[in-house]
Design a protein that fits this description.
By secondary structure, the protein is mostly beta strands. Helices cover 0% and strands 50% of the residues.
Length: 329
Amino acid sequence: AATANAGSPCTTAAATYTGPATQAASTGVGSASSIQALRSDATRTTRAHAVYASRGGTVLLGSSVSIEARGGGSRGIFATGAGSTVRAAGDVSILTRGGANQSYDYAIGVHAAAGGIVTIQGALDVQSGTVATAHYSPAVLAEGAGSQIHLQSVRTVTTSPPASGLEAGAGGTVTATDVDLLVSGVKQGYAYGILSGGQNSSVTIRGGVITEKSLSASWLPPPFGDGNTSNSALRAIDKGAIAVTGDLIVDTDGFGARGAYASEGGVIRLNNTRITTRGTSSPGLQIGKSRAVGTGPGVIVSTGALNIATGTPSSPGIYIEGNGSRLDA
């Protein structure tokens, strides 16, 4: 294991990393610094990561770090493998631009995989998928057993579905204090503010605001099933869990843009939540599913106040489907 300490003692004004993903354990820069990882092509084999810890490596970042990752398969911060850790003592700003190949241009702001851990003690600001062709651009993703991302104040803007603001999969865990998540879909594919999928996967936030603007004109098989588009501010599927412990405001605008959606054993826990949906086929809460993908019951539990407003006759406030699906409120 290696450690790169990039705290205040470092006097380097800026650092640039342009190496491939086979870079060894760690990379880091000092306070008030800028990191760039730039690739002009869009294949995974030439992906670039701005801050990268692997094989038990540790990266320690100082305050006010600005990161840009450009090109296919790029990550702003990436910790992969058991014991691999990235810790930021201050604010972090990340811009990912993705690539031009829709099949391969994973552009992820903060990524923990295979037991890696990322902790950011200051504010995190992520803009992901800013190239018009970028595809699968989650702002924050923890995937794999033991993978963890711990955040305080989080602001994310994701613009290229399939995409999500905060995402946990395959046993990964994301925690955040206050969130301000904007997901703006510009073509077919899913778009979620928060997504949790897979047993032992979880996203926990204290509260905040989630805004979804889905611009896709794709169809949904009635009633409210997944066709070419699937959009929700909060989505729990395949035994994934989402928990909101404080006040939450949800606002969606677009076709099939649900407020909260749980199915296939997914569980969502809300507290003092206000949900507004403005588009067609956009229930405030949707629980359970009997379609080909993600079939099975879901559970949504709400404590405190729950206020739901929908904007069209085709969008019920609460839609429950299938045996075992339930709302506890």
